Prior knowledge:
Layout: H1 4-18, E1 47-52, E2 55-63, H2 71-83, H3 93-100, E3 107-114, E4 122-131, E5 134-141, H4 148-160, E6 164-167, H5 170-184, E7 197-199, H6 200-208, H7 217-223, H8 238-248, H9 255-276
Parallel strand pairs: 3-6, 6-7
Antiparallel strand pairs: 1-2, 2-5, 3-4, 4-5
Helix pairs in contact: 6-9, 7-9
Amino acid sequence: xxxxxxxxxxxxxxxxxxxxxxxxxxxxxxxxxxxxxxxxxxxxxxxxxxxxxxxxxxxxxxxxxxxxxxxxxxxxxxxxxxxxxxxxxxxxxxxxxxxxxxxxxxxxxxxxxxxxxxxxxxxxxxxxxxxxxxxxxxxxxxxxxxxxxxxxxxxxxxxxxxxxxxxxxxxxxxxxxxxxxxxxxxxxxxxxxxxxxxxxxxxxxxxxxxxxxxxxxxxxxxxxxxxxxxxxxxxxxxxxxxxxxxxxxxxxxxxxxxxxxxxxxxxxxxxxxxxxx
Length: 277
């Protein structure tokens, strides 16, 4: 005979299963995935293929002006950094400007989406580059696990062409992750060694630690940049979305993941403006 507590727990688990949830998992889990006619990822995200020595990889590109309504002030602020026409109000702002000066025009913002921590698969690499009057976002996407090597091959080409890397926690995570996955596929990624790298997490901690809830990117986006995310997906759900895409071939849930990646890149640009303000 079941105890009242056990009956209550079983009822809860049955209700979750009827809703399509696994115990402890979020709404994106589907116990029974609906049938959808498989389509290519380009049906949702216009793009094409980059052909590398390791094979093809999907590439999606967009301009920030077409993604963000108030991109004008963002670009104007970065143009001042490129020209050096900035007078930082923060005491360490001069040191930050010194790191940026001379390399801001050739800077490359970097953000990765992976299926977990070190040793897992890299499936999306987002790069943001300042151009005249705008920013270009270039996202490299592995349509299945086998395209990871092609993604890394194309990422190497992009990284070789920049003068400086800008990231958020990239010194501890993104760059070591790239190098680890490149080594796994026997690719040489030494082009990042010795390249100037501005890690905005370190500067954010120097500027705002103790005055904000924490120094996570989304926290700073709201508490410092005063931007609230819409249409985003929680980071802990992203690996499951990608695994489901590889399993089913249905890319309809990938759009928020690409959106999440772009938002991270845009927030980095906004943080630079706030750090120097």
